């Protein structure tokens, strides 16, 4: 009687090699998107000992958010809808008259010029995240409003549109090179100095 043949065996010796090659393939070809994050200026842990930095109180626009979502702007209660307008007025106040493109009131008790103007944002630990982000958007919107105005005057288009095109990796290099100086010029006219103070737990 002939011997029955067993089930054919599958040679799995090269499966590990194939899996390894597939892993390498996906690692090499996959692109990982990175978040840009929030562009904010945090207070230093310790002030430098050898450098004495003097910032006049009138050049700081203080915005406090309490745990109930209420805004205390320059020690006065303010509605969210009025925040952007107040920030714009502060940024382009031009108290020392050195800014020739500013249209502010030149109030001697407010900021000297856009270069020295700082917006300080402080929130309570129990502040809702949505409120915090909404306030940040209004403050950034104040900078963008002024930058858009100057970009329209100088280049006939909004700054936000120019910046988005400049930061887009798909934009041709010759276009990006042309936009680089324009974007930087407008940014320097109204530098974004938005400082986030340490949170409190009142």
From TrEMBL:
InterPro entries referenced in this protein's UniProt entry, alphabetically: ExbD
One GO BP: protein transport
One Pfam family recorded for the sequence: ExbD
Organism: Flagellimonas ochracea
GO molecular function annotation: transmembrane transporter activity
Name of the protein: Biopolymer transporter ExbD
Main localization category: membrane
Signal sequence region: none
């Amino acid at each position: 009687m002939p011997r029955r043949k067993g089930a054919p065996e599958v040679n799995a010796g090269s499966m590990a090699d194939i899996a390894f090659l597939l892993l390498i393939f996906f690692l090499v070809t996959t692109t990982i998107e990175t978040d840009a994050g929030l562009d904010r200026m945090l207070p230093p842990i310790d002030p430098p000992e050898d450098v004495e930095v003097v910032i006049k109180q009138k050049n700081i626009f203080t915005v406090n958010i309490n745990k109930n979502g209420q805004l205390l702007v320059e020690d006065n209660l303010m509605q969210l809808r009025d925040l952007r307008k107040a920030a714009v007025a502060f940024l382009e106040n031009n108290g020392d008259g050195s800014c020739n493109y500013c249209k502010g009131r030149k109030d001697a008790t407010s900021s000297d010029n856009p270069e020295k103007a700082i917006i300080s944002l402080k929130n309570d630990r129990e502040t809702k995240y949505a409120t915090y982000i909404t306030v940040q958007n209004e403050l950034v919107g104040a900078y963008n409003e002024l930058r858009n105005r100057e970009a329209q005057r100088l280049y006939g288009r909004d700054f936000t549109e120019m910046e988005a095109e400049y930061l887009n990796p798909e934009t041709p290099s010759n276009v990006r090179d042309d936009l680089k100086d324009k974007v930087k010029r407008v940014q320097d006219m109204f530098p974004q100095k938005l400082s986030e103070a340490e949170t409190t737990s009142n």
